[in-house]
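Ops channel
N.P.: pipeline sanity check, posting one input/output pair.
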């Protein structure tokens, strides 16, 4: 798995992908911080996290679109699948590499509450909760993006489908409150990935929500593994 992670990170940093992702991520978050915190003398870092998740709709697909699709388009997946490494290790290695890029981007955001703490009192419990929830939500979106990437060999198609899936997830989270049918509401809630960030947003690290995000990651990684295994068997 370490070899897969190193390979993917090397590709990320030898192409514009990692730099574009981190630059856009940091610039947008810095802009929000400047507008809502510095200019308005607002000490609540949560304001940033009320808007920043929407950047995932475009940025996560850019990060994940090539992970599985590129291997298929270049036919390098045949070599990878016959290598002495499990499909689970391959998929997890790619997932962890993408997650590392997200993690590095979030680390840059730590400067925001640090700056605010110099001039005002900060509720660090809410700050930590926001960062944890944001990271977990990003991890769930990355797992979803990798699965979509495994369905096609076209990176553009992968990106478009991932964007559509993330937009749908936001619509389910904030556009539909309740259908009145319990089973339907449970199903919709399961696909409402951003909606489960709300408890973290208000400063609560709910174990149930942590388990939810980890479950979403596990499900999409397993689906990706199953999809990849099916292709290996068919070869």
């Amino acid at each position: 798995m370490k070899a897969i992670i190193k390979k993917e990170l090397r590709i990320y940093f030898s192409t514009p992908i990692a730099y574009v992702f981190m630059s856009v991520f940091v610039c947008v978050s810095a802009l929000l911080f400047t507008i809502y915190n510095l200019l308005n003398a607002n000490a609540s870092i949560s304001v940033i996290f009320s808007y920043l998740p929407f950047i995932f709709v475009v940025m996560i697909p850019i990060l994940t679109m090539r992970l599985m699709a590129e291997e298929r388009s270049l036919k390098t997946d045949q070599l990878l699948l016959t290598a002495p490494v499990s499909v689970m290790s391959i998929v997890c290695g790619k997932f962890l590499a993408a997650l590392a890029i997200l993690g590095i981007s979030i680390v840059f955001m730590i400067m925001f509450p640090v700056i605010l703490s110099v001039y005002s009192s900060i509720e660090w419990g809410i700050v930590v909760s926001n960062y944890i929830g944001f990271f977990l939500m990003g991890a769930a979106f990355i797992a979803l993006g990798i699965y979509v990437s495994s369905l096609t060999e076209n990176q553009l198609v992968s990106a478009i489908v991932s964007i559509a899936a993330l937009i749908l997830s936001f619509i389910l989270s904030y556009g539909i409150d309740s259908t009145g049918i319990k089973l339907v509401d449970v199903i919709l809630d399961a696909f409402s990935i951003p909606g489960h960030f709300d408890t973290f947003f208000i400063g609560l690290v709910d174990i149930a929500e942590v388990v939810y995000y980890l479950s979403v990651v596990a499900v999409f990684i397993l689906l990706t593994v199953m999809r990849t295994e099916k292709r290996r068997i068919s070869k």
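N.P.: looks fine end to end. The longest helix spans residues 207-234.
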